[in-house]
Amino acid sequence: MVKITIGRHEGDRRWYDTFEVEEKPGMTLLEALFYIQERLDGGLCFRYSCRGAVCGSCAMLINRRPGLACRTQLSDVKGEVINEAHRDQILLKKAPLDANKEEVIVEPLPNLKVIKDLVVDMEHFYMLLDAVKPWINIPDDRSHEENIIDPHLQMQIERYTNCILCATCHGSCPAAARNSNYMGPAALAKAWRFYLDPRSNKEDLAELLTTIDSKEGIWGCDVVYNCVNVCPRKVPPTTAILKFRDVLKKE
To answer: Which residue among 34, 63, 165, 204 is buried most deeply as judged by most CB within 10 Å?
Structure first.
C-alpha cells in the first residue's frame, strides 16, 4: 500500500487528506488518483484527458515538483526524498510530511488560481499566452515558395512547437509567483518560436519585440532554469528568453 497525501481545496477551505492505495506494477499517479476517486472519495477533483503526455491537462505538483500525473510512475515517486528548499520556493501551502518513505504528496499547480482540489483555472495562463499573439498572419496572395522553411531552421523551431501548454513551467517559475502579470516561460517560448519563423512579417515581429521588452516580459526572468527542468517535452524557455535579450541588446 502507498500513501497518497492530497492538497484539497474547496472555496476558502484548504486541507490535506491521506489515502492508502493498493499499488500495482506499472501504476501511474493518474491511475492512483482514479483508484482514490472510484473507491475512497468520489468527490476528489482532478483533470485528465489523453493519458499519454500529449494534452498536458493532468499537470500538478508531485512531491513539490510540477509534472504530469499520467507519465509519473508511482514506483518512481513513492520513495522520493522531498526537497524542502524547493518546496518553499514554489509552494505557498505546506503539507505535513510523513516520515513514511512510501508517501507521495500531490497538490495543485502553483501560480494559478485553484478551482477545486487539483483543478486550477487556466484562463490566466492562456491570457498571458495570447499577449504574444502566437500565430502567423500570412497574406492570401503569398506564393507557396515563400512558405518553404529551411530544414535546419525547422529543427530549431521544432524545439518550441513541442510545447503542450501544460503550464508546468509556469507553476515552477519564481517570477510568475512574484508577479501575476509576468508573461511566463510558455508564452515567451512561443514568442521565440514565431520570431524564428521566416513567414512572420516585419510589422508583427516589431510588435512582438515591443510586447516582450519589459519586466513583465523577458527582463523579469530569474534565469534559474526551473521551467527547463520540469518541461515534459524538453522545451527550453530560458534559452529563448536569453536569445531574445541578445536580440534586444543589439537593437
So the answer is: 63
Q: Tell me yes or no: is domain 123-250 CATH 3.40.50.980.
A: no
- In which residue ranges of the chain is CATH 3.10.20.30 found? 2-120
- Rounded to a whole number of angstroms, the distance between the first and last alpha carbons of the chain is 60
Residues of the chain with CATH 1.10.1060.10: 123-250
Percent of the chain with pLDDT over 70: 89
Q: What is the pTM of this model?
A: 0.87
pLDDT tens for each residue of 89-99: 444 344 445 54
Calculate the average pLDDT of the chain: 90
pLDDT category of residue 232 using cuts at 50, 70 and 90 = very high
Superfamily in which the 2-120 domain is placed by CATH: Beta-grasp domain (3.10.20.30)
- Helices 185-196, 123-130: crossing angle, 10 deg rounding: 30
Secondary structure of 61-102 as H, E, C letters: EECCEEEEHHHCEHHHHCCCCCCHHHHHHHCCCCCCCCCCCC
